[in-house]
Structures are given as C-alpha cells and as structure tokens.
Amino acid sequence: MSMMNSGCSDMQGLTVSKKQNKNPNPKAGPGLIRGLFQVDGASVALVFVILIVVFMIAAPKAFLGYRVYMSFMATVPPPLIIALGVTLVAVAGEMDLSFPSVVAAASYVFGILFQQWELTWFAMILAVSVGATMGLINGMVITLLGIPSLIATLAMLFLWGGLVTVVSGGIQLAIPDIYGTPMHTILVGRIGDVFPAQMVWTILIAGFIWALLNRHRFGENLLFIGDSLEVAKVVGINVTREKIKLFALSGALSGLAGVLLTLETNAYFSSQGMGYLLTVIAAVFIGGTSIYGGSGRVIGTVFAAFIVTVIEAGLVASGIQGFWTRFFIGFVFIVSVTANAIIENPDNVPLVRMLRTKLRNN
C-alpha cells in the first residue's frame, strides 16, 4: 500500500512538474514577451485597452464619456458570472451549453415568488438552488450515463428550456415593485447614483473563482482531470464526484446570473439567457482558457467578457451596421483561440507545426 501511495505521489509530482513547465520563467526559453503573455489576463487586457482606444477615436461621443462604461458595468455581470462557471467546466475538459435555460429557470422562480408572495432573499436562495440542482442533474447525466458533455448539455438546454416554458405557460412576468427594495439596492443599485453594484459583487465572485482554481484542492483536481483523465484517476481523484460538483457549481452561478438579470430588468421572459450563448462561450476562450482542458484563465475571462460587449457597442456607435458585430466577434474568437493555442504549445496548431518543420528542413 505504501509503495502504491509512493507511486501515486511520484506520478502527481511528475504531473505537477509537467503543468509548471507549461508556464516557463519569462526570462528563459521563449523569452520575456512570451512569458508576459502567459500571465493570466495580460494579453486579453492589452487587447481590451487597444479596443477602447480605437473606439475612443472612432466613436468619441460615446467612448469619451463615462456613461457607456457604466452601462458596461451594468450589463456585463450576468454573462460574466456564467462565463466564470463555464471557465471551470472548460478547465476540466468539459463543456456546458445548458446555461441559457438555467438562467431562464432561475429567473422565473425568482420572479414568480416575488410577484406572488413578495419574497426577496429567500426567492434568490431558492432560484440559485434550482440552478444548482439543474447543474447537478447535468453532471449526473454526463458522468453516470457516459454522454459527452457537449451533447448532454445541448440536450439539457432544450429539455430545461421546454420545462420552463411549460411551467411558466410561456408568459412574461413584470415585477416593477422590486425596484427600491433593500435587495434591489444592495445587489443592483447604483453606488453614488452612478456605479452599478452588481459589478462589485461580480468582481468578488471572480476573485473567489480564481482562488478556487488556483489555491484550492478542487481547482487542482479540475486541472488534473482536464490535463489527463487517466493520471487524475491514478493519483486518487474521484473524477465522477468532482465533475458532478463542477456542473452543480456552474448551474448555481447561472442561477445567480438569472436573479441579477431579473433584478436589473425587473422582468422575466421565457427566452431569457439565450442571448448569452455566444457572449459566454466567446468570453471563456477569448480569455485564454485552453480548448483542450487542463488550463484556465479566470482574469482573462473577465476582460474577454468586456471585450465582447465593447465590440458590440463600439461597432454600433461607430456607425457600422449591427449585424457586423457577430462577424467581428467570431473573427476575434478564432484569432484569440489560435493565438492561445500557439502560446500554450505551437505544435497544437497544424499550420504552425508544418511551417516549423519546413523551416527546420531548409
């Protein structure tokens, strides 16, 4: 038994060494610039700053004033909170596409409880619990039935969405009386009548997710699972349990996003959350989280969520027709994922690998 534990420890040490080698000393190997861009969020933050400067020049009336930035602070938190959960899912080499329906479900639960019984904090707790339960079931479907997460969560997107529509009767709920309540003021009010409070809570959640991924055993387990499922099992990680916990957490964060969205808009509608599908997935992978699993960039996800929103607002403010926004977001998506793959390991990109082979041969 001691020999087995020793072997597992050696294997874990080798795996940790392997992970650490993915982030070399900036002064060695690829050089200082590449090392700098491997810092969580550094390259994405630079892109964000460049975009702001470009739109300040292209649309000065909008981007030289503070109001557009306060608008970003009010609208970005819900999709960003979802993206933080999906970032953890992607770190484990999985995917969660069910979150739009989870957002709608939590939004409906919160809206109906407030409308019928004027419940606030309890309604939020119940709504987040509904989201966590949906995520828990997603995780069980994936781990116990052996269905790939991409397919399973896509199916659950329609299953949960259909269930919410049936339960709600497809109606919309308006809850204008929520405005001015202590809960509304604390969660989505305006600090100093200017700064949206939901951004403060979102930053705190982002800090918690960063610590969970980088300073907690749960995050370490996710990194092992995403890097090598077989190694994770060898070192004694209960993969099934960790994945179920992971999807439950993702569902809870989606549920919380649904509550914040309902508080901000004072309304519920059955398609709530569907508009976040592109924004969330783009934020996760533009932010630098590996599409192969085993590596995640929480700070990168934060900046990337703002990048997507800035592109949408900036193009419209610059006089470019709205349908171009998806084109540019898709373009940035492809470029970012490719760049991140090259930084992580150039051999992951066939074109780069082919060019390097030709250069060596020449």
Summary tags:
two-stranded antiparallel sheet, mainly alpha, single chain, two-stranded antiparallel ribbon, 362 residues
Describe this structure in words.
Strands 1-4 form a two-stranded antiparallel ribbon. With 362 residues, it is mostly helical. Strand 2 (190-191) and strand 3 form a beta hairpin. The protein starts with a helix and ends with a helix. The protein has helices spanning 2-20, 32-37, 42-58, 60-63, 67-75, 77-91, 99-117, 121-145, 149-168, 182-188, 197-215, 217-227, 229-234, 239-265, 277-286, 298-317, 324-344, 350-361; strands spanning 173-174, 190-191, 195-196, 267-268. The protein has a single domain, classed as ABC transporter involved in vitamin B12 uptake, BtuC (Orthogonal Bundle).
Protein topology:
Elements (H helix, E strand, L loop, with lengths): L1 H19 L11 H6 L4 H17 L1 H4 L3 H9 L1 H15 L7 H19 L3 H25 L3 H20 L4 E2 L7 H7 L1 E2 L3 E2 H19 L1 H11 L1 H6 L4 H27 L1 E2 L8 H10 L11 H20 L6 H21 L5 H12 L1
Antiparallel strand pairs: 1-4, 2-3
Helix pairs in contact: 3-16, 6-11, 6-12, 6-14, 6-15, 6-16, 7-8, 7-9, 7-14, 8-9, 8-14, 10-11, 11-12, 12-14, 15-16, 16-17
